[in-house]
Automatic annotation (TrEMBL):
<dbReference type="GO" id="GO:0016614">
    <property type="term" value="F:oxidoreductase activity, acting on CH-OH group of donors"/>
</dbReference>
<protein>
    <submittedName>
        <fullName>Uncharacterized protein</fullName>
    </submittedName>
</protein>
<keyword id="KW-0560">Oxidoreductase</keyword>
<dbReference type="InterPro" id="IPR020904">
    <property type="entry name" value="Sc_DH/Rdtase_CS"/>
</dbReference>
<keyword id="KW-0521">NADP</keyword>
<dbReference type="InterPro" id="IPR002347">
    <property type="entry name" value="SDR_fam"/>
</dbReference>
<dbReference type="InterPro" id="IPR036291">
    <property type="entry name" value="NAD(P)-bd_dom_sf"/>
</dbReference>
<dbReference type="Pfam" id="PF13561">
    <property type="entry name" value="adh_short_C2"/>
</dbReference>
<comment type="similarity">
    <text>Belongs to the short-chain dehydrogenases/reductases (SDR) family.</text>
</comment>
Length: 252
């Protein structure tokens, strides 16, 4: 089965892996809803890159941890492009590296509200809408962005983030079984150490260089390498793949 034009919503698409996936989707001629939380300028840059690559794009502001924002986000992209047949649940945050014993409750609530509640709200809305666009000949697809931290634990750094990503792995398995009979596929990618801004935002700009070489391939990955896996899972060439978690970790 070959790729066909798709209407796709990507959360957290203003930078990093989300932006890379959006640009690759644009190169396939897809229509892309570019969700962002607050950085409108960065979202406009993503829209421009999608359009230069050959697709169409629309920037949509929304906080994924707020139910009404999520509903509005889906409504907006469907009003603009038509029914969705692909969603990438990517929006997520981290915080300064520290052991769990030092983490204030406000930090924990922030991480889990965005990374877990936000992802579940987006997954729930996808589950309500994507079956209408799915057929046996053209499945609909949800791709969830997890992390290798889910199985490595990120001790003394981000055990809260790692736990939130463990929830993504469970969501992938469970939702794939719920939606498989409706011809909606649910898969995840689990990136390793990837060259994005998330390391600096965690207060450790040297983390990428320090840990990137620990992978058997001897380097960090790129956002584009993760994006390629996401777009493959979205498209028709992965038509019999569901409930699968793809590690993009350089072997770590």
């Amino acid at each position: 089965m070959t790729d066909q034009p798709m209407n796709v919503l990507i959360t957290g698409a203003s930078r990093g892996i989300g932006r890379a996936a959006a640009k690759l989707a644009g190169a396939r001629g897809w229509n892309v809803g570019v969700n962002y939380a607050s950085n409108a300028e960065a979202a406009r840059t993503t829209v421009s890159e999608v359009e230069k690559a050959g697709g169409k794009a629309l920037a949509i502001q929304g906080d994924v941890s707020r139910e009404q924002d999520v509903i509005n986000m889906f409504d907006t992209v469907e009003k603009h492009f038509g029914p969705l047949n692909g969603v990438v649940i990517n929006a997520g945050i981290t915080a300064k590296s520290m052991p769990l014993a030092d983490m204030p409750v406000e930090r924990l609530k922030s991480i889990f509200d965005t990374n877990v509640l936000g992802s579940y709200l987006c997954a729930r809305e996808s589950a309500r809408r994507l079956p209408a666009a799915a057929t046996r000949e053209k499945t609909a697809s949800i791709v969830i962005v997890s992390s290798a931290a889910a199985r490595l634990g990120s001790p003394n750094e981000f055990v809260d983030y790692a736990g939130s990503k463990g929830a993504m792995d469970t969501l992938t398995v469970g939702l794939s079984k719920e939606l498989g009979p409706k011809n909606v596929r649910v898969n995840a990618v689990r990136p390793g150490i990837i060259d994005t801004e998330i390391h600096a935002s965690g207060g450790d700009a040297g983390r990428l260089e320090r840990l990137g070489g620990l992978a058997p391939m001897g380097r960090p990955g790129s956002a584009e390498e993760v994006g390629e896996a996401i777009v493959w899972l979205l498209g028709g060439k992965a038509s019999y793949v569901t409930g699968t978690i793809v590690d993009v970790t350089g072997g770590r």
